[in-house]
Amino acid sequence: MKPFLTFCALCCFIGIFRLPIEYYTFLRILVSVAALLVLYVTLHAKQHYFSIIFLVVLIVFNPVFPIYLFRKSLWIPIDTVTGILFLLITFVDKLELKSEVTNTEETADHSANLSFPSRDRIINTKKPKEEQLYGKQSDNGKS
């Protein structure tokens, strides 16, 4: 996923230049697929701030119902910001994975030092031998 998002960012930066309309159609499809992918991943990771941002990107670059701004000067900042967002989501995932690994290592170190008594209790359904012996004797004495 990382190379794909980096490729999308690169295509957004290339979209700043004056190119044929076919490239921008390709860019709309590419960015929409990537935004949909990022939206899916961020919703499952419960990162709602990125989900909202990439939902807006998906709406703006939507190839089914395209939004035409008709001026290149309006698309240049949009392409630039979208490229930066794709690079940001690429590197933020790496930073979060590294922080999760260090948090896991720190937690493992702390839990190794602490020892907690077991809360489990073993319940023996069989009576101890002493109770079985005394119980049989008392039954014999009553009869």
UniProtKB/TrEMBL annotation:
Spans through the membrane: 28-43, 50-68, 74-92
Bias type Basic and acidic residues, positions: 118-143
Residue ranges of the region described as Disordered: 102-143
Keywords: Membrane, Transmembrane, Transmembrane helix
Signal sequence region: none
Biased composition (Polar residues): 102-116
Pfam assignment, any one: DUF6804
Membrane as UniProt keyword: yes
Keyword Transcription: no
InterPro entries assigned: DUF6804 (IPR046548)
Protein name: Uncharacterized protein
Protein source organism: Chryseobacterium taichungense
Organismal lineage: Bacteria, Pseudomonadati, Bacteroidota, Flavobacteriia, Flavobacteriales
